[in-house]
Amino acid sequence: MNRREYCKTCGNCGRRDVVIAVVPYTAEFDDDGEKIMVTVSDLSVPRCANCGTLSIDHDAANQITDAFRQKTGLLRPEELRHLRNIRRISQEVLAQLLGVSLSDIIRWEAGDQMQSRQADKALRALFQQPASPANEIAANVAPLASPDLKVG
Amino acid sequence: MGANRLDLVHAAIRAGTLGHIEWKDEAFRLVLNDPALKRLHPNEIRRLLRQFVLDGGLLEARTETRPEFVRENPDHAWWYRANLSVPGFRDPLFLEVTIVSFDEDEPWVRIVSCHF
């Protein structure tokens, strides 16, 4: 296991008092127009012992976004990849079907970007259709948006 | 002074296994709520910044003149900006960082703003 890298100096007060703390963390996020509260009851995060300022490092960012994904019930990257593979749809075709960029699909599957609620619904609808060639699926799936208004 | 500090910024971004880059909590929250960013993961943005510097990209040093930021942190007279190209996005991603640790052996920067 790699040693956790974090800055010991506080970006707010400048004191070298930052330590890893376990704290409750709540944030309001917009889920396609709906405000949702995401709470991580035990966020492990660099925190200044002097002024209380949090620094969001790699691990803390993952913990918070995982909680967001769990709260919203979005398909996880590995689920998305698995569902696409069993349907034998290429990433390129999936991007075309949804009217999003190939980069979006690649990042969704890598966990580098979270799909929108609208995109998640479209993905689920697409994967629930009986297995058929991609061009037949395409006839039954309306792209999410015009190329200029791609949704992520 | 700004040039030396800029070297420190680049050293911080190159440092360690993931880069010595942290997020200001407020900026982190804004990023996840910005529809233009399409929920790009903050760790991916961090990775893109690191890759930009590893590929030879340079940030620009700027003096802080905005009164609200000077008031908030008088010690941060400088900030540094990068314009990153992100595949699938038309516009460059604008990132603003400040130095958190000036320790030459362990420099760190903090992302304080990120938007298209």
3D structure, described in words:
The complex is a heterodimer of chains A (152) and B (116). Chain A is built from six helices and three strands. Chain A has helices at 58-72, 77-86, 91-98, 102-110, 117-128, 134-140; strands at residues 18-31, 34-48, 55-56. Chain A has a two-stranded antiparallel sheet with strand order 1-2. In chain A, helix 3 (91-98) packs across helix 4. Chain B has one domain. Helices cover 35% and strands 28% of the residues of chain B. Chain B is built from four helices and five strands, in the order αβααβαβββ. The longest helix of chain B has 13 residues, at 2-14. The mean pLDDT of chain B is 91. The chains are: A alpha+beta (152), B alpha+beta (116). The A-B interface holds A 2, 5-12, 14, 27-30, 46, 53-58, 61-62, 64-65, 68, 101-104, 107, 111-116, 150-152 and B 16-18, 20, 22-25, 28-29, 32-33, 35, 38-44, 46-47, 73, 75, 86-89, 98, 100-101, 103, 106, 108, 110.
Task: Sum up the structure in keywords.
heterodimer; A: 152 residues; alpha+beta; 434 Repressor (Amino-terminal Domain); 2 domains; two-stranded antiparallel sheet; 3 strands; disordered C terminus; B: 116 residues; 5-stranded mixed β-sheet; globular
The tally of domains of chain B stands at: 1
In DSSP terms, counting alpha (H) and pi (I) runs of 4 or more, how many helices of chain A? 6
Low-confidence stretches of chain A: 146-152
**What is the number of beta strands of chain B?**
5
Low-confidence stretches of chain B: none
User: Largest beta sheet of chain A: what is the strand line-up?
Assistant: 1-2
Distance between the termini of chain B: 29 Å
Q: Helix content range of the residues of chain B, please?
A: 25-40%
The share of residues in helices of chain A is 40-55%
Following the backbone from N to C, one meets helices and strands of chain A in this order, namely: EEEHHHHHH
What is the average of the pLDDT values of chain A? 88
